Every structure is written in structure tokens, then in C-alpha cells.
Amino acid sequence: MSHDRPSGEVVLPSVDPRPRFDVDAIRAEFPALHQEVNGKPLTYLDNAASSMKPRAVLDAMAAFYERDYSNVHRGVHTLSQRATTAYEEARQDLATFLSTTPDEVVFTRGTTEGLNLVANAWGRTFLRPGDEVVLSRMEHHSNIVPWQMACQATGATLVVLEIDDHGQIAAGEIESKITARTKVVSTSHVSNALGTVNDIPRLAAAAHAVGALMVVDGAQGVPHGPVDPRALGADFYAFSGHKMFGPTGIGVLWGRRERLAAMPPWQGGGDMIRSVSFEQTTYADGPARFEAGTPAIGEAIGLGAAARWLMSKDLAGIAAHEDALLAYGHARLAEVPGLRMIGTAPNKKAVLGFVVDGVHPHDLGTLLDMEGVAVRVGHHCAEPVMRRFGVPATTRASLALYSTPTEIDRLVAALHKALSILS
Ligand code: PMP
To answer: Would 15 be classed as within a structural domain?
Structure first.
């Protein structure tokens, strides 16, 4: 169709051939979003802590438990074979999500376990006194404490990349602190407290230039769409299922196959061995070496469904929607008197963290909940970030692909109401 103007000039209609991102259609797939809390429509803005689950994930898990449930790998009977097939198909789904092959996908309990696995299996084996492990000031505790423990056990030292007032790694830090002593650089892909997107290719290039390992905490990276950790330059990339619309209790540690092959096991037990005797045990190759014991089978299947579900969506549309919403959130929150944003990096995702003069975040969080608005208040397991900004805690509204401008409006209205009560 074209429109002829009186002048005869032909104006082509602005038809975008790409599929349109339809947030209402997305929301319809999430049963939990459609409820009232405290008599108000639920405004769920706690997605950085955990996201809701689409029907596709709930159905995949229910179908497994209703029809195919059994233990994996060890059985010859039909149900065990079905369970094994479904579990390994889930690994394939995650491999597709990560642009890799299943031999690089280790199922874990989540980001925390993935990072502990690397810090223990790799760190405690290869770190020596005088070696340095480089982290950033914005890390979640789960990317600090395991490395601190590995350093204590080996005599290595933690080095911290400082952040600037916007909450991004400060100028000059990478050049001055990643040195010949560095053996590991481990940072978040996206900060949960600030929303900052770290420049992983740059960090990885600096790490690799000195022969160090690049480990990425991807907990807040994957909820926004598929990630290619190899293209980012990572050696290991850890994440949780529950923040990317999958279940709790399951996550992935992606590792380059040569890195996985060079790493000793961490936990011992069933399924991670080739053969066992009291004299000598030999270990399985590939992901199995790191998956001791009965895995979270139904949860892995749920996570596979979540990965498939995400990949089926209009990813460019999701990114544009989330980025527009983040900008809208910043603009609307700027209207609130006494509000200061914590985390204003130019490259950020999905996180609106703030403090309000003279108001404790916990009081704010409680009053927002009365309006049906779910946000997180506290230090967000990132105490060094809070200290850097001189605050004990922040209020954090965090977005997902199903978030809407109306929800931002409700947050702002609820904030005005709460502040009128508190001040
Ligand atoms: N890292 C980051 C950046 C996170 O946001 C989180 C969860 N808040 C974690 C690690 C830990 O994830 P989990 O508790 O699922 O292991």
C-alpha cells in the first residue's frame, strides 16, 4: 500500500518487516503476573532477584513429572531412558542458547555454585602465593567470597577494580591492575546492584594478554536474551535458571572445553567417574566430571524450556523494549523529590537502584508493597557497592521483558504516596 499526496509525491508507509514485540502477548504467557497483591494489581519489579515463569516452562516441568519422571543415566528401563533423553536435550537447548555444543554446558545449582566450582576446582589447583585474582568493586558476594576463600587457601591475593561515580569500572583500572601477576579476572556481565554492563571483550583481552583466565558472572546477562560467551572472550560463564524465566535450583557453568578438560573435579560421587576402586578412581570427561550425584532433572528440563522460549521471541524487540523502559524509568524517577539514582552508567540494563533522602529503603519497600509494587530493598548481596556510594542499602526496581510503562507509573505513584506518609 502507498499513499499519494496531492503533489504526486509517493510516501512509502512505515511498515517494519521485523516481528513487533508485543508486551501484552508476552504477559499473557505468565500466569503469576495476573494477580492482585494487597488489593492492587501486582507490579512485579523484582526481576533481578528472580523472574516469573512462562506457561511453557511450567508445562514442560509438569509433563516431565507426570509422564517421564525417573532418575537419569543409570537406568535401562523406558522411563529412565526418557528422563535421560529429556535431560540431555535440555543441555542441547542451553548449548544452542550459548552458541556452543553440549560438551561445554555443565549443569549446576546456579550462578553461586558455578563460581564456587571454578574458584575451587581451578583456583585451588592453579593459584600460587603471589598470584592475583582481579575482581571489580561491583561484584555480587557470590563472585567475591569463593575467590576470597581460594586466595586464603592458596596464598593468592585479591585485587579490586574500582568503580567511578556512575558505577562503571573507573578509567585506568584495567590497564594498571591486570598485570603479569594476574591469574584470573572475574567480573559480572551485568551488575545486579547498578545495572552496569561491563565491557567483557575488553576485560577478556586484558586478561588473555597476560595469560589469565576470564570468568564471567552472567546471572544478570542471560535474562535479556541468548549470550555467546566465547565471542565475549570468556573462559567460564556462570548463570542461574531462575533469573531467565526458568526454575530455581538449576544453572549453567559454560566453560571452554579445553579449560574444563584441564580442571580436576570439585565434588566427588556418582556419575562423575569412569571407574572407582579403593586404590584409584578415574573421572568422567566433559560436563559429567562436574555433575556429581543425581542432578536437578526436572529443573534442567524447565531451564531448557526457558531457553527455547526466550530464543523463540523477538530478541531485538525485547532489547529495544527493555532499553526504552529503562530510560523511561530514569526519567520518571527523576521527578521524585530527594531521589538519587545509584548506578548511572551509560551502558546499563534493567536495574533502577536509588535512595531517597531521609528515608530508609526498608520502610519504602514495605509501603510500596501495600500498593502491590514488588521491589527489593537492601544491599543486594553487593555490600562493597553500597560502601562505595556511602549508603547502607538501596531500593531496586528491576525490569524484565514483560515489564511495562504502566508499571513504572505505578512505581512512581506509589513512591509519591509512600513519601507523603514517611516525610
Ligand atoms: N551474581 C549476580 C550478579 C546476581 O545477581 C546473583 C543473584 N542475585 C548471583 C550472582 C547469585 O545467583 P544465585 O543466587 O542464583 O546463585
So the answer is: no
Q: Which of 311, 326, 346 is the last residue of a domain?
A: 311
Q: The domain spanning residue 211 has which CATH number?
A: 3.40.640.10
Atom of ligand 1 nearest to the CA of 110: 16
Residue type for position 140: H
Residue 92 shares a structural domain with residue 231: yes
Alpha carbon of 77 to ligand 1 centroid (Å): 37
- What does each of the 423 residues of the chain score in pLDDT, given as a tens digit? 333 344 445 555 555 554 568 999 999 999 999 999 999 999 999 999 999 999 999 999 999 999 999 999 878 999 999 999 999 999 999 999 999 999 999 999 999 999 999 999 999 999 999 999 999 999 999 999 999 999 999 999 999 999 999 999 999 999 999 999 999 999 999 999 999 999 999 999 999 999 999 999 999 999 998 999 999 999 999 999 999 999 999 999 999 999 999 999 999 999 999 999 999 999 999 999 999 999 999 999 999 999 999 999 999 999 999 999 999 999 999 999 999 999 999 999 999 999 999 999 999 999 999 999 999 999 999 999 999 999 999 999 999 999 999 999 999 999 999 999 997
Total domains in the chain come to 2
| 76 C-alpha to ligand 1 centroid (Å) | 37
Range of the domain at 347: 23-53+314-422
Is there a single domain that holds both residue 252 and residue 145? yes
Atom of ligand 1 nearest to the CA of 142: 10
Residue nearest to atom 5 of ligand 1 (CA): 192
- Report the catalytic residues: 381
Distance 419 CA to ligand 1 centre (A): 30
Closest to 173 in 3D by CA, of 135, 209, 140: 135
Residues ≥6 apart with Cβ < 8 Å to 349: 190, 195, 197, 220, 224, 322, 323, 326
Atom of ligand 1 nearest to the CA of 248: 15
DSSP label of 225: S
- Are residues 184 and 123 part of one domain? yes
The label of the residue with cell 594478554 reads 209
Let me know if residue 3 belongs to a domain: no
Q: Which of 174, 110, 100 is nearest to 143 (CA)?
A: 110
Residue to mutate (ligand 1; options 192, 196, 250; most atoms within 8 A of CB): 192
Q: Do 101 and 239 fall into the same domain?
A: yes
Ligand 1 surroundings by CB, under 6 angstroms: 48-49, 110-112, 140, 142-143, 188, 192, 217, 219-220, 240, 381
Atom number, ligand 1, closest to the C-alpha of residue 109: 16
Say how many Å lie between the CA of residue 340 and the centre of ligand 1. Answer: 24
Q: Is residue 13 part of a domain?
A: no
Burial class (CB in 10 A: 0-12, 13-18, 19+), 30: buried
Return the C-alpha cell found at 268: 566427588
